[in-house]
């Protein structure tokens, strides 16, 4: 796995852990409703967390889906920041980094590589 793909994968996992920690701390300090809003502004990050487990075996669809979800996460994080929800900056910068890392040519080559044991094209 190229370094940019591994970096994106690890970044997604670390981001999910940090955001969950912030949600728990925010919920304990401010309240469950505000923690729920914070959790919702990071919704695409949770889907990215699941997709990151497929980076080793997934095809180009996993990369494209990750880029789209990270782009939507950027928009949702900006909306969360605009509404005053705390913690929106972490997912925003993480999603930007994910989009940059997965748009590199080595990442595209990794996800488009031939798979061992796959059927020849057209069968």
Biggest sheet descriptor: none
What is the SS-derived class? mainly alpha
Tell me the domain tally: 1
How would you describe the shape? Answer: elongated
The parts where pLDDT drops under 50 for at least 5 residues are: none
Helical content, roughly?
Answer: over 70%
**Proportion of β residues?**
under 5%
Radius of gyration: 16 Å
Number of strands: 0
| Residue-averaged pLDDT | 85
Number of helices: 6
Give the ordered list of helices and strands: HHHHHH
Distance between the termini: 27 Å
Brief overview:
The chain has 123 residues and is mainly alpha-helical.
Overview of this structure, please?
By secondary structure, the protein is mostly helical. It has one domain. 73% of the residues lie in helices and 0% in strands. Helix 1 runs antiparallel to helix 2 (32-41). The relative contact order is 0.19.
Topology readout:
Elements lengths: L2 H27 L2 H10 L1 H9 L8 H23 L6 H14 L2 H7 L12
